[in-house]
Specification:
The protein has 485 residues and is an alpha+beta fold. The protein has four domains: 1-113, Conserved hypothetical protein from pyrococcus furiosus pfu- 392566-001, ParB domain; 119-175; 189-272; 336-479, no CATH class. It contains 21 helices and eleven strands. The strands form four sheets. A five-stranded mixed beta sheet has the order 1-5-3-4-2. A hairpin with a 5-residue loop joins strand 8 (310-312) and strand 9 (318-320). Helix 4 packs antiparallel against helix 5, helix 7 (161-174) packs across helix 9 and helix 9 packs antiparallel against helix 10. It is globular. The protein starts with a helix and ends in a 6-residue tail after the last helix.
């Protein structure tokens, strides 16, 4: 079958032998699936509950898995070798047309992400492999992060530019230095801490003229390698870096710690921090000297000639203003913390199911977040029925918690695009439009497609969201502060 002929065919069920099917070589999951034995036992007892989804690259005789299935294919081959039973050898598969290599990779990435959280480094490697494939397919030399963000979103895997940048740092900077830590599951928060520490240390190193950027980069890399272990924590790396800078500058270690702390907290390099022994000698005979329990004072350099909280002096220094009145008090939303908690849970659940760009925060209204569109239609083309059902169920759960069909319409409409499916469904009160665009399973499928299939982490997140929903309504009733105002 030619590539042109195949692209014009609708997905169809075919019968294949397991010898005709190849696992996807670029599968983002590089570690063994911890669910392998459970999946194998389930197939032995009940067979495949859903057909494998396959595609065929033009010019090749074999078929390749699309949208996951690597673990199930592995289990089938092991079961056939052990038993010789034909039901493990000849199976029904759903054949979908070949599109392009990047689409296959991202379909597997979505499937792995939905079935169980991938290690951050596996996800990052897959995203940057997708970048390489996009560059080949589009015949561009270096795809910008903004363009990569757009392409990932088009393929149903939305990621923000900042997250993609952190993934690049993990792949290109950290993986050669701390492979053990990353392979053991070092996550995005830890990667962010390492990156912030390198930036802060590098800024101090260069601005205080200790050395150049390349020298600092080498020192930081050496320290990272020294502390690369599966149970990695940032504290030993930071302590070692502080000692390295203190040795190079002959400055007190306390000063270096306070300086890096200021930089890590978004401050600036301190202009002067006295040596502890010098400070003690100066204040020993001063009646009003601060006690040892008082925190050390750090004065930070401000831009010369101006200051956002001070008065300009001729020499460019800044002196703090002394306010004569207390700042005015602002009303505090009693439901604010609960709304933030609801949004955090909803965002986490949405991101894990390819719906991250479908919700926005509502800081002072409703449940704290809003669904703004139905799931990406591209998901229907790549997800098997099981996963599509799970994503659809999650969307409906988020929509229910956001009260999308019961909230006052006037509060929802300003946040929706006028050409969106959700906007048209709500304005026209057309529930059929939603049911047509979001796969809606009968209520009896909730247990099978949602409760049973969700990972433990996602299940706990969903429960937390539901609990917060109930608390919001309770607090609103008790405080007399309506949810929608």
């Amino acid at each position: 079958m030619s590539g042109i002929d195949q692209q014009h065919r609708e997905p169809r069920v075919i019968e294949l032998t397991i010898d005709q099917i190849h696992g996807y070589a670029g599968n983002p999951r590089r570690q063994a699936n911890p669910e392998y034995e459970r999946i194998k036992a389930s197939i032995r007892q009940e067979g495949l509950d859903q057909p494998l989804v396959v595609t065929q690259k033009p010019g090749e005789s074999h078929y390749v898995l699309l949208a996951g299935g690597n673990t199930r294919l592995q289990a089938l081959k092991a079961l056939y070798q052990e038993t010789g039973e034909s039901r493990f050898y000849t199976i029904h598969c759903l054949l979908k047309p070949w599109v392009e290599e990047s689409a296959v990779l991202l379909a597997h990435l979505r499937e792995n992400e939905l079935r169980g959280e991938l290690p951050f480094i596996d996800k990052a490697l897959a995203v940057y492999e997708a970048k390489r494939l996009f560059e080949q397919e589009l015949q561009v030399q270096d795809l910008s992060l903004r363009r990569l963000e757009q392409l990932l979103k088009q393929h149903g895997f939305p990621l923000g530019n900042a997250v993609i940048s952190k993934m690049g740092y993990a792949v290109h900077r950290l993986l050669p230095l701390i492979p053990q830590a990353l392979e053991a599951g070092l996550g995005r928060p830890q990667v962010e801490k390492i990156r912030a520490l390198e930036r802060a240390g590098g800024q101090y190193w260069v601005e205080r003229e200790v050395g150049n950027e390349a020298e600092f980069a080498d020192i930081f890399a050496t320290l990272c390698r020294r502390y690369d272990t599966p149970d990695w924590t940032v504290e030993p790396l930071r302590n070692a870096l502080e000692n390295e800078i203190a040795d190079a500058t002959q400055a007190p270690l306390q000063m270096i710690r306070l300086t890096l702390g200021a930089l890590l907290n978004g401050g600036e390099i301190p202009a002067y921090i006295p040596d502890p022994s010098e400070a003690a000698a100066t204040t020993a005979d001063t009646p009003d000297a601060a006690s040892d329990c008082d925190p050390p004072r750090v004065e930070c350099l401000a831009p010369q000639g101006t200051g956002s909280k001070g008065t300009d002096l001729p020499d460019g220094q800044v002196t703090p203003e002394s306010p004569t009145t207390n700042p005015p008090r602002t009303a505090v939303d009693p439901l604010g913390p609960l709304r933030q908690s609801a949004f955090d849970s909803a965002a986490k659940l949405a991101q894990r199911h390819g719906l991250g760009d479908r919700i926005i925060p509502l800081t002072d209204q409703g449940i704290g977040f809003l669904i703004i569109e139905v799931p990406d239609p591209a998901l229907k083309e790549t997800l098997d029925p099981d996963l599509l059902g799970q994503v659809s169920m999650v969307w409906w759960q988020l929509a229910a918690c956001a009260e999308i069909t019961v909230a006052p319409l006037d509060y929802l409409i300003p946040h929706l695009e006028s050409d969106s499916v959700l906007y048209r469904a709500l304005v026209n009160q057309d529930a059929a439009l939603l049911f047509d665009r979001v796969w809606t399973l009968d209520p009896g499928q909730i247990g099978h497609q949602l409760w049973r299939q969700l990972t433990d982490a996602d299940w706990q997140t969903l429960l937390a969201l539901m609990k917060t929903y109930r608390q919001l309504h309770h607090e609103a009733m008790m405080s007399g502060h309506p949810l929608w105002t």
